[in-house]
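Re: the 290-residue chain
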Amino acid sequence: MGGIAEIISLGAVVPFIAVLTAPEQVLQNPIASRIAGWAGISAPREMIVPLSVLFCVAAIVAGVLRVAQLWFNIRFAQVVGSDLSAEVFRRTLYQPYTFHLNQNTSTILAFVTQKVSVVASGLQATLNFSTSVFLGISIIGALLAINAPVALATASLLGFFYYIFARQSRLALQKNGEIQAQESVHYVKVLQESLGGIRDVLLDNNQEIFLSIFRKSQRRAAAAGSKNYVTGSIPRFVLEPAALLVLVGVAAVLATSGAGLATMLPLMGVLVFGAQRLMPTLQTAYQMYA
C-alpha cells in the first residue's frame, strides 16, 4: 500500500506542475482530456484544485502508511524478541543440574539479556530493509514511467554507489559486530565476578582493577558500535550534494537541448520529488544492512 501511495503521489506531480505552468497544454493530453471530461472540467484552470487535492491526499496517505509500516515492523520484532528471550530462559531453567555446573553463568546471562535483543534488532532491520527495497522499487518504477532515460540513469548511479560502499565496508561491519558480541559477554562476566565476590573485592581493595577492566570492555564495544553507525551514515552525506549536482546537470542538459520551461519544470519537479523520496529509502536499506 505504501508503494502504491508513493506511485500516486509521484504521478500527480507532473500534471500538478504542468497545470500551474502551462495549463492549456494539459488538456491536449488524451488521458487528461478524458479525465477532465468525466469530471466535467472544461477550462484548464479548473484542474488546479482537484490536482492539488489529489497530490496532498496521496502524500498524506503515503506518510501515514510509512508510519504504520514502521510501527508494525518494530512491534513485530519486539514481540518475537520477547518470546524468544522467555523461551531461552525457560529452557535454561529446565536443564539438569549437571548442565549448569558445566556452563558459564555470564555467558547464559549475556545470551538471555543481550544476544536475544540483537536477534530481535536483526529481525527488525530485515523487515525495514525489505520495506525500503519495496518502496524503492515502487518509486523507481514510477520515475521510469514518467521519464525512463533520466530515471534509469539516476537510479543506476545511486544504486551502484550504495553497492560499492556496502561491498567495501562489509568486512569492517562484520569485524565490529564480532567485537560487540565478544565484549558484551566479557563485561557481563566482569560484573558477575566482581559483584559475586564482592567480599574479596572489598578486602583486597580491588575495586579499581575491576572498574578498569569493565570500562575498557565497555569502551571497545561502544567504539565498535559507533564505527558501524558512522559507516552506515556516511553515504547520505556524500550522496546529498552528489544528487544536487546530478539535478543541476539534468537541468543544464534540458536547457541546452531547447526544451521549453513548460517541459522542464514538470520533469525537474518530479525528479526532485522522486529523489527526495528515493534517497531516504536507499539510506534506510543501507543502514539496515549495516
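Residues 2-289 form a domain with the ABC transporter transmembrane region fold fold (CATH 1.20.1560.10).
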